[in-house]
Design goal:
- It is built from nine helices and nine strands.
- The strands form four sheets. A three-stranded antiparallel sheet has the order 5-8-9, with no helix packed on it. Strands 1-4 form a two-stranded antiparallel ribbon. It has a two-stranded antiparallel ribbon with strand order 2-3.
- Strand 8 and strand 9 form a beta hairpin.
């Protein structure tokens, strides 16, 4: 009969041998399966903002660093980084800085609570997506912003805030063009636009004029004045809405906004959109009362 001491010794020896065997297998596997990673990836990542916002077109800063090393992208594609940091990256890699125009989120709605009526009071989860599932959210204009701030919540760069009328305001300096607000808006009111796109239709309503005006005071009525005043082909009317052809953006100027009677088409420069001189003044400071329900027939 084997003594307890011998049993312990055999078990210890077996475990030690097994450990050595497994360590050998791991060493061989590590050598055969080793994938070389350029140490410059870490150096580049340290020069990037680590925002992982996706504005450069890839999933995060590390994949962007890899794309830089492979020559697929230029340093200037990172619009969150400072120009000086991007230049350091370009100098490190010995490549040109490149150029890439910043993308900024634009909201196609100007219907705050003081100019756009509501037809029902929504009570539930404070979320535009949740509200949109309940008969569209309760706003008179079914195309308009619901003002519950999903875009503000999802923005990691503090670039979107709701104003006193429940309308999102985008800070063009802070906006990175990450696309999160575009994805989260249930009304598809946000789009990413190059910074040079100054002429903007702040409305998405495609209802006929009388119906649109009944729900919002700052609505595009497709009157055609902007198209008549702008260079030919820059603006057209489509589905009761002014549509800008940005392939002709070089022709755009504030001239097109001057006779808009509602102020739905604006010129974007600085923090606040500029309306034309012909736009009716909005003097109301309080939310509009709820619309009366339509009588049953």
């Amino acid at each position: 009969m084997t003594s307890p001491i011998l049993q312990i010794a055999l078990a210890s020896g077996f475990m030690a041998g097994l450990g050595v065997l497994l360590a050998g297998i791991l060493a061989i596997a590590n050598r055969r399966l080793y994938v070389y990673e350029d140490p410059r990836i870490d150096q580049l990542e340290d020069l990037l903002p680590r925002a992982n916002c996706g504005a450069c077109g890839v999933a995060g800063c590390r994949p962007f660093a890899e794309a830089l090393l492979e020559g697929h992208l230029e340093p200037a594609r990172c619009t969150v980084n400072s120009t000086d940091m991007n230049q350091q990256i370009a100098d490190m890699l010995g490549v040109a800085l490149g150029s890439h125009e910043r993308q900024i989120a634009r909201l196609a709605c100007a219907g705050g609570s003081h100019v756009a009526a509501t037809r029902a009071r929504y009570q539930g989860l404070k979320s535009c997506r949740a509200a949109a599932l309940v008969s569209g959210g309760g706003k008179g204009c079914t195309w308009g912003c619901l003002g519950l701030g999903d875009c503000e919540v999802v923005c990691d760069f503090d670039a979107i805030h709701l104003d006193r009328y429940g309308l999102p305001v985008v800070d063009p300096v802070r906006c990175t063009g990450c696309n999160d607000c575009v994805d989260v808006c249930p009304k598809n009111l946000f789009t990413l636009q190059p910074e040079s796109h100054r002429l903007w239709v702040a409305c998405l309503n495609q209802d006929p004029q009388d119906e649109a005006m009944a729900h919002c005071q700052v609505v595009c009525t497709a009157c055609g004045r902007c198209a008549a005043d702008a260079p030919e082909g820059l603006i057209r009317m489509e589905s009761n809405l002014a549509v800008i052809d940005y392939t002709k953006n070089a022709l755009a100027s504030p001239v097109a906004i001057q006779r808009c009677p509602t102020g739905a088409i604006v010129w974007l420069e600085g923090q606040a959109p500029r309306k034309g001189s012909g736009a009716r003044k909005v003097t109301r400071k309080e939310p509009l009362p709820r619309m009366e329900p339509l009588p049953r027939v």
